[in-house]
What does this fold into?
Amino acid sequence: MSRRCSKDHLYGRPVLTWLLCLLAVCPISAISQSTSADLRLSAATQENPDHATATPVGNADSGPAESQEARDCESDASVVSPGYHLAELIDLAQCLNPQARAAHERWVQAKSAVGLAKATYWPQVSLQATGGFQRTPLPIPASLVPAGYFTSNTREFIPALSAKWLLFDFGRRSSTRAAAEAKSDETYAGLSGVEQKIVFGVVKTYYRLIASRGKHRAAQEALNAAQIEKNAAVGQQQHGRATVVFVAQTNRALAQAQLNMVKTEGEVDSAYASLLAAVGLPPTRRVAVADMPPGFSPMLPDRPLSSYIDDALTSRPDARAAAAEVSAAAWEEKAAKAEYRPTISMSAQYFQNIGSLSSDGSPYVSVNKSGGAVFVNFDLPLFDGGLRRSQVHIASSKVAEAQDRLDEVKHGIEHDVVDAYNAVKTSSAEYGDTIALRDASKVAFEAALDAYRHGVGTYPELESSRASWVMAQASVEDATSDCETARAALALAIGHELPLRQ
It folds into this structure.
């Protein structure tokens, strides 16, 4: 699943991202009208009232109206489904998230800067026109005119076509253009990095929501178990095999289970709000979020750690951006050094002189003739008070700074890959252990409950078994979330597409 921008397109995602937003072709309803999410939510709830995992616990009121672009990125409300899956949430986030839009605009600006640099290779052609009237006293020998001067009246209109062309600058323009292209590559890599971070944020908060829902279900099962324990204790009391103290303890356990239910509901609300923030929707928005597809199994790294590190150093967006920054700084240094070299340019003008002249009140004499001029200019700065030298020193310092930043980025990438690699291995091992612990805890709880019902078990043993079972169920949910998040973190650390289970 590719979600990166192509340089040959405005925002080239092959899925519902910027292309759909800009062309406005997605069959989408307005979020601000509170129809898309509410229809999905109400339809899913009506079809299956017990499907609580498809709806968040929180306020059902719709939020403030979003922009037209946000409304255009909503899903088709006419299609009834259990809710947004992870891939759909990612598409929505890439369309709505302001960080992605800002990064895209920076890339557009950098591409335009390349066009500016290329434009300096072409001549500048302009159309000019000058017209007016001039009255000018001019000196003349008194032997010709006793007053010693005469007055000339001139009326002129001169349209002209002018051209200026820089022919040779000995590397100045080529260095500037190469620097602009390197900066464009840098901003494009930055755009890819922003998109990957947005996707990772959605993935992380999505699995946090899934884990909180699982804990909520486990808390519900614990509440049911506590109710069964209470009923068993009451039955034992009626047969004289349980005391009032045991019944009170079961009431306490039931109240604790109800409290845990409230806490898990709060965790669901918090995780849901975090997911909306990662997608770019307002916190008051009510949308249905589908559960994770079934059939989860942990995945271990498929190659050595060194291979992941080498891959990350070449494909990570921040590594590519830092390398492009070094290249841009080097070209800017060459452009600064090129200021010491001369420039050769040409200028030309073709004009039409339409005018008339009158001297001392004589009749006007008219002219309507064309003219022109061509010049070749040679310019070599000789002294500038150290301006060019200072510019070269600044450019050289920027090259060293960019190289140091590249080394820092590579060092950070190595640590990120090592951490993510170890997290994948650890989370996979923890998942297997938590599954075994959950199954064993369930068997132990069922055995303790059966023993207590038959009067051969004690309530402390039953309560301890139930608590262990509930904790094991919550651990499985956390381990599942950790596995998926670790896989996504490893993909982000090496700069690859994040793996999504369909």
